[in-house]
Structure formats: C-alpha cells, structure tokens
Amino acid sequence: IQACSVLAKNPKTSPEVISQLCLHPSSDVATLVAYRDDLNYSHWELLVNQRQDSTVAEHIAFQGVEYPHIETTIAEKFATSENPSLRAFAALALSQPQQMILTLSQDHCEKVREAAVSNPNIPEQALRTLSYDPNKDIAEIAEKALYQRIHPTISKPDDEQEDTPQNSPSHDDDQPNRSRRKILNKILTFFKE
Fold it and tell me: Is the dihedral of CA 30, 31, 35, 40 positive or negative?
C-alpha cells in the first residue's frame, strides 16, 4: 500500500498507472489519486462509477468536482446519502431521473438545491419553485434557466450541432471544475506548512 501511495502522489506517474490506482482495493490509495490535478475523463469514470464503495466519491464531491456522467444506479445511491456534498454531486448527474432531481431540488441544504437547479434535466416545475428560493443565487439561476426554456435560442440544423454534455463527454470533462480544486489544494497546502 505504501508503494502505491507514493505512486499516487507522484506527479510523474503515467496515466496508465493512475488508471490502475483508481481501482486499487485500498480506498486510501484511490483517494490520493482523486486529489491529483492531472486526471482525465477515464480516471473520473473509474473513480466515480467503477469503485464498490463511495468513500472516494465523497472526497471528490467534497472537492466540488462537477462530474455529470455518474451512472444512474450510482447517482440514485449518492442522492440518498446523508452527506450533503454527495447529494449535491448526485444532483448534477445527467443520468439522474427527473423525480430524484425534483426531490433534490427540495433538499434542506442550499448546496444540494444549487446543484439541482444547475442540472439541465431539472423539471420545469422545480425551476418555478426554485425561482422563489430564499437563496438569491439559486433563485437567479432558476429564473435564467426558466427564461432559456421559454425563449430558446435559435438552434443549428442537426448536421451542424455540436455534441452537448448530455450526449458525450466534452473537453471540459477532462478537468472538471479545476478552480475549486486549486483553491482547496492551496488551503490544504497552507495548513500543512
């Protein structure tokens, strides 16, 4: 385990070895991998959708990583977690059934409601309700989403449309929400010193 931990922390470890470490039996090793800044889409897939436990996903969720390609059964499991970070992580899942997004949009935790309102598959009735949310940021996001649904932009013909996040992984999925991770890493580094 110690050698694998060293590999997980080493910035020169190859992507192939990182892929193997993502599925290491020890959650401690896989958690170290989850805090790396050089993970790609396939690494996130392994860490979130292929692990048997949710320990690593909890760390990923706590970091504020936005990985919307969570498999349906896993997203539903995370959505019922007691951990609000994991529920917020699940609320962003594109595979999340609308009924579960509706439930998450009514969560007592603002972070979960904010994630739910950001899911493009949120039901319109939930957007209408969230447009009156006590948190003004959530209400504003809901209002903008409602406006976009009522007044959609002129779309390109089907043969010119680009892949959307709902249909396939985008370039941004290679490095989900790096700004939050960088801030967290700076904070952690500060307290280590």
Answer: positive
CA distances from 138 to 84, 115, 150 (A): 16, 9, 18
Question: Is the dihedral angle over the CA atoms 79, 83, 88, 93 positive or is it negative?
Answer: negative
The answer to whether residues 42 and 66 touch, using CB atoms and an 8 Å cutoff, is: no
Length of the chain: 193
pLDDT, tens only, 113-153: 999 999 999 999 999 999 999 999 999 999 999 999 988 87
Strands (DSSP E) contained in 89-130 are none
Query: Distance between CA 102 and CA 135 in Å, rounded?
Result: 17
How many CB atoms neighbour CB 117 within 10 A? 28
What residue type is 191 in one-letter code?
F
Span 24-44, pLDDT tens digits: 999 999 999 999 999 999 999
Rounded to whole angstroms, the Cα distance separating 89 from 109 reads 13
Q: Which of 156, 174, 153, 155 is nearest to 165 (CA)?
A: 174
Contacts of 121 (CB under 8 A, 6+ apart): 94, 96, 98, 101, 166
Interacting residues of 30 by C-beta distance below 8 A, sequence separation 6+: 8, 21, 22, 23, 24, 47, 51, 55, 56
User: With contact defined as beta carbons under 8 Å apart, do 33 and 44 qualify?
Assistant: no
